[in-house]
Write a structure and sequence with these properties.
The chain has one domain (about 1-220): 2-Layer Sandwich (BirA Bifunctional Protein, domain 2). By secondary structure, it is an alpha+beta fold. It has 8 helices and 5 strands, in the order ααααβββαβαβαα. The protein is globular. It has a 5-stranded antiparallel β-sheet. The protein starts with a helix and ends with a helix.
Length: about 220
Amino acid sequence: MVEVIDFLNRLSQNNNREWFADHKSEYKALEKRLKEFAAKLINGIAAFDPSVAGLTVADCTYRIYRDIRFSHDKSPYKTWSGIFIAPHGKKAGYAGYYIHFEGAGCFLFAGSHCPEPIVLKSIREEILDNGDAMLAAIEATNGFTLVRDNTLKRTPKDFPTGHKHDELLRLKDFGIEKPIDISQFESDDALLTAVLNDFRSTYTLVDILNRAVNYAYEEMM
């Protein structure tokens, strides 16, 4: 995957249609490689989390083309690539497993990013009931840490102040992450083995979060 990072680095310095057209064949070869990796990753995760079984590569990957219609940034291409494997696909609102490829840094993420308000409320209710179990699940992972980038300054409305898990209640996203150095892996299969081992350690937390997601969706019915 070092070649993927190299391409994305060069794209970030030449983010225009002319350069991309000149390197389209290179991109297509790397896209094929990423899709093959994604297919193996889906199958590997499904072995310990059956809720993602049957997903397709299209369910879990993103187009390189940016939607620039409402953006001040008119750069036509994304300078990153990612794979998000979650029940019912990347747009379904469930917690899942994400790998991010970018020249500025690659990382793994497990959890729920930008959940809908009803889902976030359900996750916070889960924290009240099972906060200790959620922290224990984080501590049991292979070096993942809680993402604290998107946090309220105060305890959210309708939740108790001074709760022992107040820090968790104030989170607007709920996930854990771990940086990963792509260059240390001699092959895509070696990377795959390491990523699957890391994601397997996050399954308990993802499962708890998706229980909260299911509760939220049941309330909407």
